[in-house]
Structures are given as structure tokens and as C-alpha cells.
């Protein structure tokens, strides 16, 4: 179990990351790709990404190189994910390349003596080839589905922001059951090892990830900036716009529904849309379904309600 100790000052510094972290996507995405688990909603992504890796030049080589330092489960070196959300791929890679050589070797040795024989090439050649492999894997298996990953991320963030607004930070921490439990002043998180993390007024960034498996993960080194990466529902579909969806979108009422969603900073529930536009809840739900199928909004369940927010495409169309 991971026990995260939050002081009063830390509670005021808890927040959900503003955007995905691409190096976390690479590390966790590779783990998911290598685990034979098609029962999850990411099974479709595994099939698609596996085909991409096999056919795109440099794809297999990147996976083989990364696999030496990224076990399919459990600990992997902290220096592979040096940031805690809100970081682009280029910024993350620059931070990774600045990792001191002694830290690289120390963290690789934590994988075990047997693994050291397979990973020592990183310490000997420097981080350039490893960073290149991470970049290539991102280009092949992550970047082509960035719109979907961003929609999943934004849907999750929208729900957590609404909880934070309505219930405060302790309500937010309490909302992560069943894989985490808020027992003030400690957040208890399901974790494969026993670990205590004192935040010491550094706050905590909560980073949603579609690639995170059944329970959250974090950095091993307690002196690094605190981050908790946690799983979100990943309802995967292949990258496409549903046939006929955009054509079905055309019409003044759906434009009003889209505008209603875009204009709200915290998203709108189906009931709120119906109330504002003076239509039935069933009608609002039907219009929202068409907008979602067209890739213009994303939707997430919040208690007994469904909360809707705009995608980047939806914002652009509504402008």
C-alpha cells in the first residue's frame, strides 16, 4: 500500500494535471502492449498498435530496445518519466536526457542483477538511443491516437473538476475509490509494495492515464515531484469518424446543444442542456449522442448523470 500524507498546505496544492504526459503514455503504453489482456477495453488498441509496430519502419526496434528497461509490470526506472503531467514529448525527452549518469545506473540496477545484463547498454551508450526509441514508439503507437487519448483525458478531468467544485479537495480525494481511500490526513492507495510518501508541502498532481492498469502508479523516489498516475475508463475505438455522423450533425438544434456545451467551463449534464435549451432530456441525450459520434464532444458518467464536454474539433466548429 502507498500512503500519501497530506498536510493542510498540501491539500491546497492537490490538482488534476492540465494535459497528458507523453512519456508516461509511452512507458505505460508499452507495458499494456506487451501484456496479453484483450479482455480490457484497450484490447482494440493493443491489436491496432501491434500491427502498427510490425509494419512501420523502426517500430519493432523501438519496442525491443524499450522492453529491456520496461518490465511488463511493476517497477521501471523513474528517469523514464521525469515529469508529472502537462509535458510535451519534446520537453519530456529534454528532461530525460539531462538525467545524471550515476542516477541512470542506480535506477537500472534496481531492476535486479539479471536485468542489469540487458540494460547496461543504456549506462554505457548514454540516453540518446533510449530517448530515440521512446520518440519512435510515440510516433508509431501513441501520436496517431492522440485525439482519442486527449478526449479520454479531458472527460476524466471534467468529472474530477466538477467533483472538486462541488465537494472540495477532500471530496475529490474521496472519489478515487475503490483503488484509493481518503482517511484524513492520509490517502491510502492500492500499491504492490509498502511505501509512505510525505509531501512536505509540495502538493500532489493527479495524472489520469488510459494506459494505467487496474491500480495507480507513482515514482519510487520520494524526493522527486509527487505524482499519482491513476487508471481511467478507456472505451477504445479505432481512429475514425463514424460514417454519416457529421452529416447527421447539421441542424440548428444540435448547433445549440454544441454551443451550450462549449460555453460551459465545467461541462454540462444532459439534464442541464435540456433545461437551458427548453427541450426534453431524451432529446438532449439524442443530440449529445450524435455530437459524440461525430467526435465533437466527449461524455462521462458522474453519479446518476452524464457530463458532456467539447473536444478540440467541437470547439473549432462552434467558433
Describe the structure in your own words.
This protein has helices at residues 8-11, 22-34, 43-55, 59-67, 89-97, 101-109, 113-125, 128-142, 146-174, 245-249, 252-262, 270-277, 281-293, 312-318, and strands at residues 2-5, 14-16, 180-183, 186-189, 195-198, 204-209, 217-218, 227-231, 268-269, 297-302, 305-310. It has 319 residues and is α/β, with parallel strands linked by helices. It has a 4-stranded mixed β-sheet with strand order 3-4-1-5. Strands 2-6-8-7 form a 4-stranded mixed β-sheet. Strand 3 and strand 4 (186-189) form a beta hairpin. Helix 2 packs across helix 8 (128-142), helix 5 (89-97) runs antiparallel to helix 8 (128-142) and helix 12 (270-277) crosses helix 13. The mean pLDDT is 87.
Number of strands: 11
Report the principal-axis shape: globular
What is the typical, i.e. mean, pLDDT?
87
Largest sheet: 4 strands, mixed
Strand order of the largest sheet: 3-4-1-5
Please state the CA-atom Rg, rounded to the nearest Å: 21 Å
| Count of alpha/pi helices | 14
Amino acid at each position: 500500500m502507498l500512503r500519501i500524507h497530506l498536510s493542510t498546505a498540501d491539500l491546497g496544492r492537490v490538482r488534476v494535471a492540465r494535459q497528458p504526459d507523453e512519456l508516461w503514455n509511452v512507458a505505460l503504453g508499452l507495458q499494456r502492449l506487451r501484456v496479453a489482456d484483450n479482455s480490457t477495453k484497450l484490447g482494440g488498441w493493443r491489436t491496432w498498435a501491434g500491427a502498427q509496430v510490425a509494419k512501420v519502419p523502426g517500430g519493432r526496434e523501438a519496442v525491443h530496445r524499450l522492453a529491456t528497461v520496461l518490465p511488463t509490470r511493476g517497477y521501471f526506472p523513474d528517469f523514464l518519466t521525469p515529469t508529472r503531467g502537462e509535458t510535451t514529448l519534446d520537453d519530456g525527452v529534454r528532461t530525460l536526457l539531462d538525467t545524471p549518469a550515476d542516477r541512470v545506473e542506480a535506477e537500472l540496477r534496481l531492476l535486479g542483477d539479471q536485468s542489469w545484463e540487458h540494460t547496461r547498454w543504456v549506462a554505457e551508450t548514454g540516453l540518446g538511443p533510449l530517448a530515440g526509441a521512446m520518440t519512435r514508439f510515440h510516433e508509431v503507437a501513441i501520436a496517431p491516437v492522440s485525439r482519442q487519448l486527449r478526449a479520454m483525458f479531458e472527460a476524466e478531468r471534467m468529472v474530477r473538476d466538477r467533483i472538486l467544485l462541488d465537494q472540495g479537495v477532500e471530496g475529490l480525494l474521496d472519489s478515487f475509490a475503490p483503488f484509493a481511500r481518503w482517511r484524513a490526513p492520509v490517502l491510502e492507495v492500492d500499491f504492490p509494495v509498502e511505501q509512505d510518501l510525505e509531501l512536505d508541502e509540495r502538493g500532489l498532481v493527479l495524472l489520469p492515464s488510459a494506459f494505467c492498469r487496474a491500480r495507480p502508479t507513482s515514482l519510487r523516489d520520494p524526493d522527486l515531484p509527487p505524482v499519482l498516475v491513476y487508471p481511467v475508463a478507456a472505451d477504445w475505438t479505432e481512429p475514425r469518424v463514424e460514417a454519416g455522423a457529421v452529416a447527421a450533425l447539421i441542424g440548428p438544434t444540435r448547433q445549440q446543444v454544441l454551443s451550450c456545451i462549449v460555453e460551459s467551463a465545467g461541462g454540462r449534464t444532459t439534464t442541464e442542456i435540456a433545461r437551458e435549451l427548453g427541450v426534453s432530456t431524451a432529446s438532449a441525450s439524442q443530440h449529445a449522442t450524435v455530437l459524440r459520434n461525430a467526435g465533437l464532444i466527449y461524455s462521462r458518467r458522474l453519479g446518476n448523470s452524464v457530463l458532456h464536454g467539447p473536444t478540440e474539433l467541437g470547439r473549432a466548429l462552434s467558433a
